[in-house]
Each structure stands twice: as structure tokens, then as C-alpha cells.
């Protein structure tokens, strides 16, 4: 018969700490390590003999040690923190991702003795996540949408050509990002990439920006100035919002595309250009051609390779990927440790229509970063409009219909008040009688055959 009884509680704790796969260490009030379990040794590559007695930052060399240390926050505010993401440097100088949870270390009487940190090696999970993400990643764009994956599949071939590209898509869908991807994949990648928003500039300024000018070309032109076509020589130039350009500018641009030459303002000497042109627009260029708002010949010149970026509402499967990407980006930029987004908050995002597309989603996540101090983003960190009833957001009453309904009600009420006397009703409404008849006809209001005036007389 075994004479030994069950292990004492302290022994039980040690057995448990030595058997788990998470690293655990404790520090005293002076930040010196007082215990270091077996898993902590395996993850860091540092023996407990080496670790105990040293400052914790000397052992872990975590990027968290340099700024927002979770254990330090726990010691300062007396609060536990769960699953903060960071990385440490191991004994063989390898950086590995970990998540940490921290708590105060107290004795039986509640006196604070120091802090305890539990950390988990996330290398395998990060590797799997990276492999999964890489299959959806192309240049700086990420998507699992079939339409986007098909587009990614063509980009390499498109980039190798010198043909003009037209990118169509709503505002915020990433037209400039796609243009940069084409440039970065092309043989021109070491040459300049220059983007200009054509819709933001008046004709004369746009032309001087693109083509440059000679001294004396206009009042303030005191010296020659190089234009963007010269600056982008052998590189790529993106003409964004090309659908907003004037007919006069379209003529000048057509000449550049046909002859590969341009003339600076005030010059009569044409200059050759080798810049590749990419045009982008959020407007329906084909429709503009049909209504003579955009030159047909220029349209065919720039529409050699046409790419259409789908709006975010047509690729909602990308939202989780994009949210993860923006959180990682903002964690780096703002030195925070936001761990992700919870299910309810993600569900609210998935129910939104995103008229502002990816740019709107990024702004929403940045908004959440301001309000979320730590942990995951929850619904209360999101902008208030996302928490409104969905039906209200998705089915707003068209303003034209609302105005028409109000006018109809006012006219019917005025007619009723004046016993169908058209003249009196018009006076009550402050309208000329002919205006009243026009509105009655437009709104489809049925009037009685007899005017109230004749009835009363």
C-alpha cells in the first residue's frame, strides 16, 4: 500500500504548470522573474536557471516591452488582460508571434506579490494563416472573391504589355491600388509611377500639370516647368477620374495617345513620351459616349484593356480578410494591441451596403480603433449608423417620392378646405392657378368635373 497521500495544493499547482503547453512566468514587484515553467523554456529556448532572477524584458525582448506592455498595464491598473498579440525574440534570435494573458499575483491575504503572464506560441497558427492569406493576396490587394481572383489571374500578362488600361469601378474600390499593382509587376517597376486626379483640376491647370509649360506661356510662368508626362518617362501615369474631363482636354489627350507626343503650354515643339497610360473612372464611360459627353475616339483609345473592380457589396466574402488586414495595419501604426473583431460587430459589417466601398470599411475600422482601448472590436466601437435597424438603412424612402406625397396631400387638403374651388385652393397654397393645374396633372390627382366656385354660385 502506498504510504504517500495526495500531493499538497502547491505541488498540484507546480505539476499543472509543468504539464501545460502554454509558457508561464511570474515577476516580483521589481520586474525580476521568480518562476519559469517548462513550456516557457521550450518556447523561448532559455532555461529557467538562466531566466529566474533576470528582468523579464531581458529574457523576452518582446516588441511589447518597448511600449504598451500588458503585464505593466496589469500591475499599474490592477486589471487582467487576455490574449494580447505580440512577438518575442528566442535564444536563437528567431522572432515568434505569441499571445499573452496577464494577471496580478497575490498571496492568501490578497497582498500583491507581483504579476503572472501566460503566453502561447502562435507560430504554427500564424504560418497556416499566412499560407491561407497568401492564396488570396496579390500585390497589395487581398480578396477571395471569384471576380477578383479572375482579375488577379490576368494582371501579370497585362503588366507585361504596354497597352493602355481602363479601370472602371465605384469610388473606394481600389483603382489606384490596382494601377500600382500593374506598374509594380511591369518591366517599368523601377521607373516612376505618377497618379493625378483629373476631376479635381480645371483644364488649364490640368494641362500645365500634365504637359508642363514654357516661360511666358501665361502671366505667372516665369520659368520652364516639366510636366508629369515628362516626369513619368519610361514609367506609368494614372489619369484618375478621366470621365470628368472636358471635351477640350480630351482632344489634347487623344493626340498624346495617337502620336505619343505632347506640347508644353507655350511651346510649338512636340516632345516624345514613353510613359504608359492607365485611365480610371467611377463613371459609365460608355454611357457618356452615347450622350456625347465623352469622345468616342478617345474612349476606344483608352479602352484597349478594360478592367472592372466590383463594389464591396458584391464581394462581401472579402470583409473578414480586409478587416484583419486593416486591424494589423492600424495596430502597427497606432502601436495598439487590438486582437480582432467579435462576431456581432462583424455581423453588423456584413449587413452594411458600403456605398463608400473599401475606403469606407477602412474608415470604420479606424473609428473603432479610437474607441476600442484593447481586446476585440465590439458593436459599441463601431459608428452609430451601423447599429441602426437594417431595414431603415436599406430601404430609405426616395426623397422625390416623399416630396410628391407631401405636395399631393397639401393640394387635396386645400381643395377640400375650399370646396374644390381651384382658384381659392391655389391662393391658399400660394401658387398661381396655372401652377396648381400643372402640379395636379403631374401628380395624377383626379379633380371633380365641376369647380367648387361654380357649384357655390
From TrEMBL:
Keyword Kinase: no
Keywords: ATP-binding, DNA-binding, Nucleotide-binding, Transcription, Transcription regulation
Xref: SUPFAM superfamilies: Homeodomain-like, P-loop containing nucleoside triphosphate hydrolases, PYP-like sensor domain (PAS domain)
Superkingdom to which the source organism belongs: Bacteria
CDD domains assigned: AAA, PAS
Domain Sigma-54 factor interaction, first and last residues per copy: 141-370
Domain PAS: 16-54
UniProt KW Transcription regulation keyword: yes
Record-linked SMART domains: AAA (SM00382), PAS (SM00091)
Gene3D superfamilies noted in UniProt: 1.10.8.60, Homeodomain-like, P-loop containing nucleotide triphosphate hydrolases, PAS domain
NCBIfam families: sensory_box (TIGR00229)
Name of the protein in question: Fis family transcriptional regulator
Amino acid at each position: 500500500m502506498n504510504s504517500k497521500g495526495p500531493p499538497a495544493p502547491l505541488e498540484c499547482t507546480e505539476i499543472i504548470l509543468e504539464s501545460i503547453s502554454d509558457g508561464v512566468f511570474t515577476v516580483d514587484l521589481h520586474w525580476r522573474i521568480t518562476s519559469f515553467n517548462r513550456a516557457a523554456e521550450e518556447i523561448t529556448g532559455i532555461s529557467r536557471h538562466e531566466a529566474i532572477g533576470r528582468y523579464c524584458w531581458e529574457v523576452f525582448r518582446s516588441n511589447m516591452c518597448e511600449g504598451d506592455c500588458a503585464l505593466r498595464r496589469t500591475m499599474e491598473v490592477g486589471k487582467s488582460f487576455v490574449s494580447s498579440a505580440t512577438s518575442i525574440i528566442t535564444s536563437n534570435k528567431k522572432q515568434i508571434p505569441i499571445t499573452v494573458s496577464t494577471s496580478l499575483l497575490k498571496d492568501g491575504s490578497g497582498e500583491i506579490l507581483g504579476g503572472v503572464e501566460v503566453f502561447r506560441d502562435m507560430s504554427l497558427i500564424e504560418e497556416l494563416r499566412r499560407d491561407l492569406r497568401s492564396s488570396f493576396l496579390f500585390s497589395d490587394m487581398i480578396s477571395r472573391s471569384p471576380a477578383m481572383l479572375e482579375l488577379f489571374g490576368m494582371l501579370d500578362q497585362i503588366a507585361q504589355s504596354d497597352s493602355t488600361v481602363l479601370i472602371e469601378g465605384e469610388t473606394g474600390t481600389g483603382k489606384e491600388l490596382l494601377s500600382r499593382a500593374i506598374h509594380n509587376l511591369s518591366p517599368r517597376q523601377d521607373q516612376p509611377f505618377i497618379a493625378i486626379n483629373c476631376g479635381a483640376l480645371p483644364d488649364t491647370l490640368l494641362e500645365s500639370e500634365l504637359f508642363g509649360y514654357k516661360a511666358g506661356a501665361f502671366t505667372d510662368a516665369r520659368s520652364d516647368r516639366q510636366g508629369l508626362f515628362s516626369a513619368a518617362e519610361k514609367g506609368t501615369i494614372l489619369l484618375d477620374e478621366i470621365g470628368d474631363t472636358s471635351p477640350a482636354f480630351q482632344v489634347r489627350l487623344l493626340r498624346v495617345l495617337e502620336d505619343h507626343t505632347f506640347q508644353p503650354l507655350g511651346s510649338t515643339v512636340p516632345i516624345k513620351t514613353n510613359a504608359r497610360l492607365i485611365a480610371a473612372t467611377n463613371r459609365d464611360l460608355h454611357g457618356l459616349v452615347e450622350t456625347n459627353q465623352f469622345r468616342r475616339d478617345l474612349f476606344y483609345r483608352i479602352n484597349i484593356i478594360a478592367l472592372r473592380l466590383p463594389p464591396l457589396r458584391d464581394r462581401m466574402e472579402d470583409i473578414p480578410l480586409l478587416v484583419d488586414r486593416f486591424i494589423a495595419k492600424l495596430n502597427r501604426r497606432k502601436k495598439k494591441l487590438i486582437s480582432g473583431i467579435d462576431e456581432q460587430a462583424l455581423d453588423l459589417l456584413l449587413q452594411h451596403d458600403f456605398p463608400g466601398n473599401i475606403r469606407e470599411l477602412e474608415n470604420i475600422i479606424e473609428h473603432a480603433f479610437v474607441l476600442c482601448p484593447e481586446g476585440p472590436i465590439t458593436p459599441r466601437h463601431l459608428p452609430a449608423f451601423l447599429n441602426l435597424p437594417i431595414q431603415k438603412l436599406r430601404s430609405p424612402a426616395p426623397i422625390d417620392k416623399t416630396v410628391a406625397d407631401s405636395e399631393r396631400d397639401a393640394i387635396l387638403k386645400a381643395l377640400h378646405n375650399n370646396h374644390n374651388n381651384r382658384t381659392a385652393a391655389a391662393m391658399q397654397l400660394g401658387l398661381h392657378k396655372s401652377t396648381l393645374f400643372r402640379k395636379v396633372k403631374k401628380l395624377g390627382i383626379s379633380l371633380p368635373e365641376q369647380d367648387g366656385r361654380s357649384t357655390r354660385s
